[in-house]
Amino acid sequence: MAKYMISEQRNRLNQIVEFHVDTLKVESILSKKRELGPHFPKFGILVLSYNTSGQIQNTISRIPISIKDAISEIFIFDNNSPDNSYQVALSLKESSPWKDKISVFKNERNVGYGGNQKVGYRYGLSKKMDWIIMLHGDGQYAPEYIPDLIFEALNGDYSVVYGSRMINRKDALAGGMPFYKFVGNQVLTRFENIILGTNLAEFHSGYRMYSSSFLKSVPFEENTDDYHFDTEIVIQCRALGQTIREIPIKTFYGDEVCNVNGMKYARDVCLAVLEYRLHQLHILRRGKYMVQFGEFYSRKRSPFSSHEIILNQVNPNGSILSYEDQNNLLFDSLKSINPNTKAIKSKNELPDKEEFSEIILLDIIPKVANDHEFLESLQKNLKEGGRVIFSTPNVALFVYRLSLLIGRFDYAQKGILDHRHLRFYTKSSVTRMVRKAGFSVEEIIPVSIPFELVFESIGKSMLLKSIDWIYYLFAKMFPKLFAYQFVVVAKPNSLFRKHDHH
Q: 88, 177, 478, 496: which could join 438 in a potential S-S bond, CB 3.0 to 4.6 Å?
């Protein structure tokens, strides 16, 4: 009786959940194929198989045959299933309409859900695929949506595309997603969005497409072999600054067997996102999150950031020279304070005879080999009573003290341990350097950890604003220990300038 009821329930679900191929998108894809000819991207479909002997034939048969010309290869990786999934997959090479494009492999041992993805991506990259679509062999994710994924790749500026069940949440429940899984999915997604500063409808979809350029730019091989591989690669997207394109899909829970331990998965997901934040703060360092950035720094808006502190120090009635080597982050703001602000990006651009009331050096001093000599040379460009205002990192921040205590000192793409920094300072050492250059220190202002960049939501969350404010109080009370950076305001010594003019 129970089996009959389950069977009836699945029949009803099949009637409720209908999957339609978008013929307009198919036509667009084929038109692009004709237009680009041999330059059309190579799309590969990675089918993950584990105990899918009862579903994989149906799953492959549902891949729209109308897009066959757009697909270079379907590669099925069986993860050493104890049933006859591998043999069933092999039979597809004889009976399926896709038989001439199907390759079937069996791992010598079960390498885990994440490990099976690694094997598949490695294979796809070796075959020079431009895009790899991940499809579960059990049919939980409708193959009919593959044209939708390809359409996004051809018509949008994305490197990562997900099919999300939660854009239209009612479809997930209509497709038979158990209510406890629905709630768990939403709770975990909400937690991950808050911690990572993202805004995804769903973190836990197994329907994904990655460009080869993205896969080559992230060390996915260092990710876990377990189920939270999918979370770690989302974090790598976040670390790389990649936009994830989500498209709505329906789903269907049929007779597939779930192999995921829900509580362990939830724990692993939560630990992964927290680990990434600790990595960003240099409390932990993880190679899998050390990705290459196209742009190193961005404008900070927190009132306790180096950018805002510098702007608050600027005299709007004086003449200003801004020297920064990245993207002129402060230039527009300085121009709004004083329209006559000038900007340079290298010391070779320093004017010989022009003098300024203030010279702003944004993260320049740590990148200069002869720091005090460079600072001393700026005196010729300062008017009488002029000032130099510059920012420099505090290498004695408590995080790095702890890192050194356990024998770790790892360079990074940005931040205090920016790999381009030639010098590192404490409050005492930067004071000595300024004095050696013939300046007196007017003020050294502590800077808070840039929580707005860590969480990307400083302007939206009162909680994070409070954290920012509380941390800054600690930085003011104990600057040597808690200041992330220092903003230094310095004036040339009058005796030195008199001697210089003499």
A: 496
- DSSP assigned state of 381: G
Question: What is the mean predicted confidence (pLDDT) over 172-178?
Answer: 72
- CA–chain centroid gap for 195, Å, is 13
Burial class (CB in 10 A: 0-12, 13-18, 19+), 180: exposed
Judged by average pLDDT, the poorest of 252-266, 382-396, 407-421 is: 252-266
Q: What residues are paired with 439 via a beta bridge?
A: 492
DSSP class of 491: E
Domains of the chain: 2-170+204-217+243-254 (3.90.550.10), 306-501 (3.40.50.150)
CB 163 within 8 A of CB 247: yes
Instruction: Count the residues in the chain.
Output: 502
CA distances from 146 to 5, 12, 29, 164, 432 (A): 32, 25, 11, 13, 63
Are the C-beta atoms of residues 114 and 224 closer than 8 Å to each other? Answer: yes
> Side-chain half-sphere of 272: how many Cα atoms within 13 Å?
29
Residue 27: count other Cβ atoms within 10 Å of its Cβ: 12
DSSP 8-state code for residue 142:
-
Which helix or strand (DSSP H or E) is residue 45 part of? Answer: strand 43-49
C-alpha to C-alpha distance for 290 and 419, rounded to whole angstroms: 12
Q: How far apart are CA 334 and CA 115, in angstroms?
A: 51
pLDDT of residue 5: 36
Q: Are the C-beta atoms of 46 and 77 separated by less than 8 Å?
A: yes
Pairing of strands 71-78, 485-492: unpaired
State the maximum Cα–Cα separation within the chain, in Å, rounded to a whole number: 105
- Cβ atoms of 98 and 92 within 8 Å: the answer is yes
Kindly report the pTM of this predicted structure: 0.70
- Secondary structure (3-state) at 333: helix
Q: Name the token pair of 405.
A: 């205590």
User: What single DSSP character describes residue 99?
Assistant: G
**Integer Cα distance of 347 and 325 in angstroms:** 10
Nearest to 479 by CA among 403, 402, 398: 398
The stretch 394-417 carries a mean pLDDT of: 85
CB atoms within 10 A of CB 189: 20
Between 340 and 64, name the one with better pLDDT: 64
Name the token pair of 344: 């340079």
